[in-house]
TrEMBL record, chain A:
Alphabetized InterPro entries for the sequence: 4Fe4S_Fe-S-bd, 4Fe4S_Fe_S_CS, Cys_rich_dom, Helical_ferredxn
Domain 4Fe-4S ferredoxin-type: residue ranges: 39-114
PANTHER family documented for this protein: FUMARATE REDUCTASE IRON-SULFUR SUBUNIT, HETERODISULFIDE REDUCTASE
Keyword annotations from UniProtKB, A to Z: 4Fe-4S, Electron transport, Iron, Iron-sulfur, Metal-binding, Transport
Ranges where the Cysteine-rich domain occurs: 317-406
Protein name (database record): Fe-S oxidoreductase
Organism, as annotated: Desulfosoma caldarium
Coiled coil start-end: none
From TrEMBL, chain B:
Record key words, sorted: Membrane, Transmembrane, Transmembrane helix
Gene3D superfamilies, per the entry: Transmembrane di-heme cytochromes, Chain C (1.20.950.20)
Membrane-traversing stretches: 12-34, 72-92, 112-130, 142-163, 183-206
Protein name: Nitrate reductase gamma subunit
InterPro entries: NarG-like_sf
Length: 448, 219
C-alpha cells in the first residue's frame, strides 16, 4: 500500500493551528446513539476485513480492514476529544479518501451491522472543516457554489447543448425534443454534468429513448445536476443545498417524479441521504425519485419499448452492480432483468447483487483526480478479477463512476472488454416505430 | 474465607445485580433518549420484519454470508456464546441459589454436562485469544483491554471448574469464582460486552437501513 500524501488542502492551512473547537463541535453534533454505540461495541473481531475490496486487493493488508479504518480515524478523534495535529489529520485523509469508497459492503458483514460508511463520511466532514479535501473534490465544490453544478457549466451552455442534441437526434428519430422547464411533466430528468459537458450524446440517447417511449418529461434549466460531490468532499451544508435545489425545482415545475440518469451516487444522494442533508425531518424527498434502470426496465417489461430480437447482443455480457444502484439503491434485480432483455449470453459476477464488490471508483474516487489513479487501479484488482472470471466481452454498468473505473481497469488489467451504458445499448437495439422514423430513411427498417 | 464468601454471595451479589441490570437499563435509556434527539433515521425507517430477519439471521449458525466465509471461527464463536449463557443460567448449583434467593429456579443441566460445556467454553476462549494474536487483521485491532476482558470473561469458568473438581484450595476458589463472576457482571453495562443487549438494536438498525429502505439483505 502506498502511503503518499493523498489529500491536498486548498490554501495554505498548515500555518494555522488545528481548529480543535470546530472539530469538537462536529464530534458533538454527530455523537448520537448510533455512532456512540457502534464505536463502543465493535468487538474487534475482524470479521469485516474479508468484505472490503481494498483489503482483498492488497493481499489482506490489515490496515485496510474496515474496523481499522474507522478506529484509526473517527474512533481516535473521539478518544482524543478532537485534540489532534495536522499529521494525524493528514493520515486520516489518506484513509477516508484513499482507502474507502463508502460502498457499505462491510456493514453487511459485521455482526453488529456497524455502518462504516457513515463513520468515514463523518470523518470527511471533520477534515473538510479544517480545509482538507482532495483537490479534485475541492474544485468541484467551488463550481457547485458558483453555478450549482460540479463542472461550472452555465445555464445557457446547458440549454444550448440540449437544443443541439435534440436537433442532432432528429436525423435518427423524428420529433425528438428536449423540453426545458416544462410544467407538470411526469418526469424531471436530471443528469451528471459530464454528460452535457463531455458526452452530449448521452443526452441525445436519453431523449431518443424517452421520445420513443412517448414519455412526458422535461429537463430543468437549474437543479439539473443530480450528482453530489460535496457529499463526498465532506461539505454537508453544500451537499444539502445541492439536493435542495433539485427538489425545489421539481416541486416548482410540479413534476410527478425526479428521474436520475445512469449514475450511482446521484441516486443514493437524491433518495436516501439527500433528504437528511437538506434537512427534511422525515427523511423523505418531496417527490418520488426514479432511477433510469427502473424506468428502462419497466419500459421493456411493459412493451413500451421493444427490443429487436435479431439485434440482441450475442457476445457474453456481464453486469456491474454499482453499489449505489444495487446494494444502496435496491435495483439489482431490475438491472439484471434489463440486461437479460438486451443480451443473449448473460453471465453474473460472483459475488453479485447487493453483495457485489465496489469497482473501486466510488466515494468520490474518480473525480478526486489523477493523483489517486495508481491507488484506484491497485484497489480495482478485485473487480478486474471478477470480470475476467465471467469471460464476458461486454460490461454493462449504469453508473458513470463505474463506467470510468472499469474502462481504466480494462486497460490496466487488459481485460479486453467493452464497457457500455444501458442507454447506449437500448438505443442501438430498440425498435423505432414508423411514426418516429425520419422521412428520408426509407422503409427498410423494421416495422412494429 | 467464610465471611468473605458470605459477603460476596450476600450484599455484594445484590449490588452486582443492581449494577448489572440497572447499568444496562440506564445505558439503554440514555441511548434511547439520545436517539430520539439525534437519530431520526432510526425511527423514520423502522420496520419490524426487517429488524427481525436481520437479528435472526445473525443468531442462526451460519445464517449470514459473513459467518459462512469463516465457518470455523463462526462455530467457535457460537459455541462460546451458548456456553457463556447456558452454564451460569442452567448450572444446578446456581439453580439452588436462585431457588434459595427467589424461590424460583430454571431448568438444570447435569453436572457432567456443565463440566463438559465449561471445558468447551475455555477451549473456545483460548482459541479466540490465540486468534487475536495470529490473525493480522484481528491483531491490528486488538488492545490489552481485549485480552483483559477475555480473561475476565473466562475467569468465572476457570475458577468454577477448579472448585467443582476440588483442585486447589476449594474455599479460595469459591471466593474467587463468585468475585470474578460479579466483576464480569458489573463490567458488562460499561464495556463492549454491552453488546449482549445492544446487538439487538444495532442489528435492527442495519435491518431498517439496508433492508427496509433498499431491500438488501444485511446478512
Ligand atoms: S466486524 Fe464489526 S465488530 Fe467485528 S471488527 Fe469489524 S466492525 Fe468491529
Ligand atoms: S465501505 Fe466499502 S470500501 Fe469502505 S471499508 Fe467498507 S467495504 Fe471497504
Ligand atoms: S463507483 Fe460504482 S461500484 Fe463503486 S461506489 Fe459508485 S456506484 Fe459503487
Amino acid at each position: 500500500m502506498s502511503h503518499q500524501a493523498a489529500a491536498v488542502e486548498p490554501g495554505n492551512v498548515e500555518v494555522h493551528p488545528v481548529d480543535v473547537k470546530k472539530i469538537q463541535q462536529i464530534l458533538e453534533a454527530n455523537n448520537g446513539a448510533r455512532i456512540r454505540t457502534w464505536l463502543s461495541i465493535c468487538s474487534r473481531c475482524g470479521l469485516c476485513a474479508e468484505s472490503c475490496f481494498f483489503y482483498l486487493a492488497h493481499n489482506r493488508n490489515p490496515r485496510l480492514s474496515p474496523a481499522y479504518k474507522f478506529k484509526a480515524t473517527l474512533g481516535e478523534l473521539y478518544q482524543r476529544r478532537g485534540h489532534v495535529d495536522w499529521d494525524f489529520l493528514h493520515r486520516c485523509a489518506d484513509i477516508v479518501w484513499g482507502e474507502c469508497t463508502t460502498c457499505k459492503r462491510c456493514s453487511m458483514y459485521c455482526p453488529f451491522g456497524i455502518d462504516v460508511a457513515t463513520l468515514i463520511a463523518t470523518t470527511r466532514t471533520i477534515l473538510y472543516s479544517q480545509g482538507i479535501t482532495p483537490q479534485g473534490l475541492a474544485r468541484a465544490v467551488v463550481n457547485y457554489r458558483k453555478t450549482g453544478n460540479q463542472m461550472g457549466m452555465s445555464t445557457e451552455d446547458f440549454v444550448d447543448t440540449c437544443e443541439w442534441m435534440a436537433e442532432e437526434s432528429q436525423d435518427e428519430i423524428k420529433g425528438v425534443t428536449i423540453p426545458i422547464d416544462k410544467k407538470g411533466a411526469k418526469y424531471m430528468y436530471t443528469v451528471n454534468p459530464r454528460e452535457p459537458m463531455f458526452y452530449p450524446q448521452d443526452l441525445a440517447m436519453a431523449a431518443k429513448i424517452l421520445t420513443v417511449a412517448e414519455e412526458d418529461w422535461t429537463m430543468p434549466s437549474t437543479g439539473w445536476d443530480c450528482t453530489n460531490l460535496p457529499m463526498f468532499a465532506g461539505d454537508r451544508a453544500l451537499a444539502g443545498q445541492v439536493v435542495r435545489t433539485m427538489y425545489e425545482k421539481a416541486v416548482e415545475l410540479g413534476v410527478q417524479a425526479i428521474l436520475i440518469t445512469e449514475c450511482g451516487h446521484a441516486y443514493r444522494s437524491a433518495l436516501f441521504e439527500g433528504p437528511y442533508l437538506a434537512g427534511y425531518p422525515d427523511g423523505k424527498p418531496p417527490v418520488p425519485i426514479v432511477h433510469s434502470v427502473q424506468l428502462f426496465y419497466e419500459y421493456i417489461r411493459d412493451g413500451r419499448l421493444r427490443i429487436d430480437p435479431a439485434k440482441r447482443l450475442k457476445e457474453p455480457v456481464t453486469y456491474q452492480d454499482p453499489c449505489n444502484v444495487s446494494r444502496n439503491g435496491g435495483l439489482w434485480e431490475e438491472g439484471r432483468k434489463l440486461v437479460q432483455f438486451l443480451a443473449e449470453d448473460f453471465r453474473d459476477m460472483h459475488p453479485n447483487r447487493d453483495h457485489n464488490h465496489c469497482c473501486g471508483g466510488g466515494g468520490g474516487y474518480i473525480p478526486m483526480g489523477p493523483e489517486y489513479k495508481a491507488r484506484r487501479m491497485a484497489s480495482g484488482r478485485v473487480k478486474a478479477e471478477q470480470i475476467r472470471a465471467t469471460g464476458a466481452k461486454i460490461v454493462i454498468t449504469p453508473c458513470h463512476n463505474c463506467f470510468d473505473q472499469i474502462s481504466d481497469l480494462n486497460k490496466e488489467y487488459q481485460l479486453g472488454v467493452k464497457v457500455m451504458s444501458l442507454k447506449e445499448i437500448i438505443c442501438e437495439l430498440m425498435v423505432v416505430p414508423e411514426k418516429f422514423q425520419p422521412e428520408d430513411n426509407g422503409g427498410d427498417e423494421e416495422q412494429t | 474465607m467464610q465471611t468473605w464468601y458470605a459477603f460476596l454471595t450476600g450484599p455484594a451479589l445484590w449490588v452486582t445485580f443492581v449494577v448489572f441490570l440497572g447499568g444496562l437499563g440506564v445505558r439503554l435509556a440514555f441511548l434511547y433518549g439520545l436517539s430520539r434527539e439525534r437519530d431520526r433515521v432510526f425511527y423514520n425507517h423502522m420496520d419490524w420484519r426487517w429488524a427481525f430477519k436481520s437479528i435472526v439471521h445473525w443468531l442462526l449458525p451460519w445464517g449470514s454470508a459473513s459467518m459462512r466465509l469463516q465457518p470455523v471461527f463462526s462455530a467457535v464463536f457460537i459455541v462460546f456464546h451458548v456456553g457463556l449463557l447456558a452454564v451460569p443460567l442452567f448450572l444446578s448449583a446456581h439453580n439452588l441459589l436462585w431457588d434459595r434467593a427467589f424461590g424460583v429456579s430454571l431448568w438444570s443441566m447435569s453436572d457432567a454436562w456443565a463440566d463438559g460445556l465449561t471445558m468447551v467454553v475455555l477451549a473456545c476462549g483460548l482459541f479466540l485469544g490465540i486468534r487475536r494474536l495470529v490473525r493480522p487483521e484481528v491483531r491490528i485491532l486488538t488492545t490489552a483491554w481485549d485480552f483483559t476482558l477475555l480473561t475476565l470473561t473466562l475467569a468465572p469458568f476457570v475458577t468454577g471448574f477448579l472448585a467443582y473438581r476440588q483442585w486447589g484450595p476449594y474455599e479460595v476458589m469459591m471466593v474467587l469464582h463468585v468475585l470474578s463472576g460479579e466483576i464480569l457482571l458489573v463490567l458488562i453495562p460499561f464495556t463492549k460486552l454491552g453488546h449482549m443487549v445492544l446487538f439487538f438494536f444495532t442489528r435492527a438498525f442495519i435491518g431498517f437501513e439496508m433492508g427496509a429502505r433498499r431491500g438488501a439483505r444485511a446478512w
